[in-house]
Design goal:
Elements: E1 5-10, E2 16-21, H1 27-37, H2 41-49, E3 53-55, E4 77-78, H3 79-83, E5 91-93, E6 105-109, E7 115-118
Parallel strand pairs: 1-6
Antiparallel strand pairs: 1-2, 2-5, 3-4, 6-7
Length: 119
């Protein structure tokens, strides 16, 4: 069974753009990967632009052939790009207070460049 999570970023206008992540959503999984590899708003926005993802990894993309059936090590697996599914764009919540997490965990990178975790 997967530990589902939601990964988001606080935009300049205070809204939160977020995507769903299906696997390893617990703090020692997705949480640790975000803190170590995505504490940079530019890289995080590249991730959010993928839409919903299956598995979060260290890298957003690769120049090598990469797919759900043939994933490259340490490269994120996205539903749209790597599985050929319809793209699910980022969800936008009106504020951090309105950020809704129906998954087990939620992670938001704030304008103050800090990660906030929701359970």
């Amino acid at each position: 069974m997967a530990t589902r999570s939601r990964i988001g970023i606080e935009n300049e206008n205070g809204t939160i753009s977020s995507i769903y992540c299906h696997s390893d959503g617990y703090p020692d999984g997705v949480g640790a990967t975000l803190k170590e590899h995505y504490s940079n708003s530019q890289k995080l926005r590249m991730l959010i632009n993928l839409g919903d993802i299956s598995i979060l990894r260290e890298h957003v993309a690769t120049m090598d052939e990469h797919s759900y059936d043939n994933p490259k090590q340490n490269v994120t697996v996205a539903y749209h790009r790597d599985r050929g599914e319809e793209k699910r764009e980022a969800r936008v919540d009106s504020s951090l207070e309105k950020f809704h997490v129906s998954e087990q965990y939620g992670y938001v990178y704030t304008k103050d460049e800090k990660w906030v975790i929701f359970e």
